[in-house]
């Protein structure tokens, strides 16, 4: 038995059960994708575990997206029992402002998550549902942030209309974009609205 959260950022605790009559130990691994072909060993132990803590996983060892945590329990007869649990790794995330928000022209804190060694990021905004031009609203940064302030978006002088935010992360040679589209700036709203 294996207990893994559906979504995980940064450090993820894994618990479960590994026991049996001829039990000799367990191996815990994580792999990238829906059906991983390569596994990264996380921990192993000869101790029996019943509904208890098994490992703390630094999720930055796999890229954002689908991943699988695998528990392999062995016994003295050479047999193994394998249990797998899917997890969605979200070490780059842009949850606020929300896609679909209707906002008064003002300054807004852009919140999110950027986690992982050597990962850098920058936040941009653009006009329209699918902007062709992006303007930076933050300098490039390399600090890991978990559900914190990534930038401040000054939307005070923007015209009524649709806008999008983009978080661009770079790790080594890999670059990924995360979008918050369809944010509507509306001068008819009173300051402080909407209230979430």
Please tag this protein with its features:
196 residues, mainly beta, five-stranded mixed beta sheet
Give the arrangement of secondary structure elements.
Layout: E1 2-3, E2 7-8, E3 11-18, E4 23-32, E5 40-45, E6 49-58, E7 65-75, E8 80-89, E9 92-96, E10 102-103, E11 107-114, E12 119-127, E13 135-136, E14 145-154, E15 161-171, E16 174-185
Give a structural overview.
- By secondary structure, the protein is mainly β.
- Helix content is 0%, strand content 60%.
- It has strands spanning 2-3, 7-8, 11-18, 23-32, 40-45, 49-58, 65-75, 80-89, 92-96, 102-103, 107-114, 119-127, 135-136, 145-154, 161-171, 174-185.
- The strands form four sheets. The chain has a five-stranded mixed β-sheet, with no helix packed on it. It has a five-stranded mixed β-sheet with strand order 10-16-15-12-13, with no helix packed on it.
- Strand 7 (65-75) and strand 8 form a beta hairpin.
Quick gist of this model?
The protein has 196 residues and is mainly β. The chain has strands spanning 2-3, 7-8, 11-18, 23-32, 40-45, 49-58, 65-75, 80-89, 92-96, 102-103, 107-114, 119-127, 135-136, 145-154, 161-171, 174-185. β4 and β5 form a beta hairpin.
What fraction of residues sit in β-strands? over 45%
Distance between the termini: 38 Å
Radius of gyration: 22 Å
Record field, number of beta strands: 16
Q: What is the ordering of alpha helices and beta strands? A: EEEEEEEEEEEEEEEE
Report helical residue fraction: under 10%
How many separate helices? 0
């Amino acid at each position: 038995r294996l207990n893994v959260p559906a979504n995980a950022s940064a450090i993820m605790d894994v618990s479960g059960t590994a026991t049996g009559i001829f039990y000799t130990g367990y191996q815990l691994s994580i792999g990238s994708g829906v059906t991983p072909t390569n596994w990264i060993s996380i921990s192993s132990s000869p101790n029996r575990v019943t509904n208890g803590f098994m490992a703390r996983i630094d999720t930055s060892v796999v890229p954002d997206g689908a991943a699988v945590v695998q528990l392999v329990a062995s016994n003295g007869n050479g047999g193994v029992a394998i249990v797998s649990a899917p997890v969605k790794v979200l070490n780059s995330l842009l949850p606020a402002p929300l896609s679909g928000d209707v906002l008064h022209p003002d300054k807004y804190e852009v919140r999110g998550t950027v986690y992982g060694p050597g990962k850098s990021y920058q936040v941009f905004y653009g006009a329209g549902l699918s902007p062709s031009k992006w303007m930076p609203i933050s300098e490039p940064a390399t600090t890991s942030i978990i559900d914190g302030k990534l930038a401040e978006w000054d939307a005070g002088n923007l015209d009524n209309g649709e806008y999008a935010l983009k978080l661009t992360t770079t790790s080594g040679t890999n670059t990924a974009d995360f979008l918050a589209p369809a944010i509507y700036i509306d001068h008819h709203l009173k300051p402080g609205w909407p209230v979430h």
